[in-house]
Amino acid sequence: MKRDFFRKGLMIASAVFALFLVPAAYAQDEAPDALVKRLSVDVLDTLRSDKAIRAGDLAKVIALVDARIMPHVNFQRMTASAVGPAWRQATPEQQKRLEEEFKILLVRTYAGALAQVTDQTIVMKPQRSSAEDKEVLVRTEIKNGANPIQLDYRLEKTPGQGAGWRIYNLNVLGVWLVETYRSQFAQEINAKGIDGLINTLAERNKANSKKA
Q1: Residue 150 forms beta bridges with which residues?
Q2: 125 compared with 143, residue with greater pLDDT
Q3: Taking a C-beta distance cutoff of 8 angstroms, is the pair 74, 135 a contact?
Q4: Closest by alpha carbon to 21, among 2, 43, 48, 1?
Q5: What torsion do the CA atoms of 170, 64, 163, 37 make, to the nearest 10 degrees?
Q6: Which of 24, 118, 134, 197 is deepest in the core (most CB within 10 A)?
Q7: Is residue 175 within 8 Å of 6, Cβ to Cβ?
Q8: 3-state DSSP: the chain helix, strand, coil percent, rounded to 5?
Q9: More confident position, 117 or 82
């Protein structure tokens, strides 16, 4: 039961996360908690109204997620953190392949989650950060009947052109996404090395593609 609840929570969290797109002006000027709140409300409204998503048009959803989520994620940091210490021993080509395969895995996970969101609402938790902070934790809760789902974001402020807040980790029910994958990836790396992890991710992605 707890595993099913966590899985459902992860799916809802992924769906809320999946449409994290804002214009550059908003991204640079908006506080991270205000950003998360506004986008989460927009996402939930979109999920309720988009007939194609509700009908399970996976190709459309994958394209949507790929276009909208990636600009607002520090994906290299996310992948490096998930791979752990072995990232530093990986060659540039191996790092590139890891990012590519990890991206495909998450995009399909988020895409598959979109159809799971129906009548949920979001509640923002008090923000504990200052204007000078470069990394922040934004805590939220998804109201889903009698069982609210904890959903927290870790974001970092990026400088220069395209500056704004970018996500690098996600917490569902007290479990951080990157740490969850790090445990799985460590087992693969210990057993088969970096190339073995890449091959495992590629095979999983191919299998998921055939199910679509």
Answers
A1: 141
A2: 125
A3: no
A4: 43
A5: -50
A6: 197
A7: yes
A8: 60, 15, 20
A9: 82
Q: Amino acid letter at 168?
A: Y
pLDDT confidence of residue 61 = 66
Alpha-carbon gap, residue 10 to 112, rounded angstroms: 11
Give the three-state DSSP class for 87. helix
Q: Which residues contact 47 (CB under 8 A, 6 or more apart)?
A: 15, 53, 54, 114, 117, 118
Report pLDDT for 173. Answer: 77
- Three-state SS at 198: helix
The SS3 call for residue 146 is coil
| Rounded Cα distance, 139 and 142, in Å | 10
- pTM for the model stands at 0.77
Domain range annotation of the chain: 2-211
Q: Hey, what CATH class is 2-211 in?
A: alpha beta
Question: Which residue pairs, CB below 8 angstroms and at least 24 apart, start in 137-141?
Answer: 138/32, 138/33, 138/36, 140/36, 140/37, 140/40
Cα distances from 109 to residues 10, 22, 94, 102, 178, in angstroms, run 9, 21, 22, 11, 14
CB 30 within 8 A of CB 127: no
Residue 70 backbone zone (phi > 0: left; psi -120 to 50: alpha; other: beta):
alpha
